[in-house]
Amino acid sequence: MTETQPDLIRLAGIRKSFGAVMALRGVDLTIRRGECIGLVGHNGAGKSTLMQVLAGTLKPDEGTITVSGHEPVRGYSVSEAQGWGVRCVFQELSLCPNLTVAENARIRHPSLKGPGWRRRAANLIISELDRIFPGHGIRPGDLVGDLTLGRRQMVEIASTFAVSSGHLDLIILDEPTSSLDQVVARQLLDHVRRATAGGCSVILISHILGEILSTADRMVVMKDGGVVEAKPASAYTRDSLVAAMGTIAHDTSHRAGDAHAPAPAAAGKAERSGPVVVEARPPRQRGDRKLVARKGEIIGLGGLAGHGQTSMLVLVHDAAGRSGRVATVTGKVAFVAGDRQTDGVFPLWSIGRNVTIRSLGAMRRFGLIDPRKEREMEQRWKDRMAIRTPDMDNGILTLSGGNQQKALFARALASDADIILMDDPMRGVDIGTKEEVYRTIKEEAARGRTFLWYTTEFEELEHCDHVYVFRTGTLVADLPRSELSEERVLQSSFEEDAA
Ligand SMILES: Nc1ncnc2c1ncn2[C@@H]1O[C@H](COP(=O)(O)OP(=O)(O)OP(=O)(O)O)[C@@H](O)[C@H]1O
Fold first, then answer.
1. Which of 185, 215, 378, 455 has its CA 20 to 30 A from that of 175?
2. Is any ligand 1 atom within 6 A of the Cβ of residue 479?
3. Residue 95: pLDDT over 60
4. ipTM for this model
5. Pocket flag, ligand 1, residue 426 (CB < 6 Å)
6. Average pLDDT over the chain, rounded to whole?
7. DSSP, residue by residue, 137-169
């Protein structure tokens, strides 16, 4: 950081409302050159909205944006922002699935035109991928729609960091590690440090507080549409950061049972007992190892991202209620998608209907859906999951990313499913709500529901009774909770047959 240079960007008095919701209520934020800002706050605090203003994709109702000490910029737009060297990777990926990796790079970098653009686009994206994610295994001719969510995110990130013309002064990363496994996430965070050392500024948004504290120079804490604290990262511990974020209002009046009571979880249970409800063997598995889940168990699916965990969940989903050669599943299943854009939300429907859709059968009266029951269910799950909206009749896309994810969770838990399949579903959910959801999962397991939970966060595996580690589409380790450690999972992820 050079003291004599003016601040890179200064936002002052930024306000933005969406109808009755005041998303930003007069935000001031200064971004210095070469610093990494960690931006944190609960779901719906206003982080993404503020970043959209900074990226020029959203026009504030009030406030000024000043770049490099010049006069406040009039009509700050996407092209203005890009001209000032501001780029961002948003939560919702923007790549075209029906185009290749190189073709997508070309769209992001319009200066790559004329003869030979395909080769130059391929070189640009692959060399950037090599720089940030060594060993990534992505080829320029790969169709983006065929890539795992994690790899798509890697392409998006590399494409944003790549410079084909102009200059790069600020990168905004809105939950960039959410679908990356630990190893790849580490590569990205290391790259962020290299970029800031080279003078580029970075704003990093993450709900994974450990990674943000270890990477950022300065933390900016948002709550209810305003910045409530901004201090050097070294001034915080994880706990003091959680305290600074404050609590979100949870209306407990509709809650079934006391979610704050210690969960009667099966954690620490050594012996596995109870009827088997899922038995499944990955198609490529050699030997006789198979995934077994019993009634009331929370089963973790670990390992590096994209190593067959989602396929296993799909296999179990498709085998529901049947017994077959590869899987036997006893009971009804519900799926909580991690890729909410393609598998999760019904974008044209209200928040309420997105929650109740799987339970409409139970709300039928004389062949019609009883609106009173539907309202009741919507309200109960709005409160239980702390879905932040003034009205469940609003469209699902009016919710912040984390709140959309909570709605998907509510849909599965509200249903009559005996077995809940979770495809890395906590991505983008804030720490307060995560704790709430973990408690709900444990309560529901104690009532006899079974959970199959794929997660890329090791900390989440610690909530499981038993963990299966996946590698190249097969089960390579089978760990009871008492034998679970991060080292063990990582070791198994890299070795052919570790347990
Ligand atoms: N297009 C929109 N229409 C209506 N309300 C919106 C819209 N976009 C955002 N909001 C509301 O603005 C508030 C701030 O949302 P924002 O997405 O900025 O939160 P966030 O801090 O990024 O949350 P998350 O951690 O869940 O991503 C929320 O109450 C959200 O519901």
1. 378
2. no
3. yes
4. 0.97
5. no
6. 85
7. ---TTSBGGGS-HHHHHHHHHHHHH--SSS---
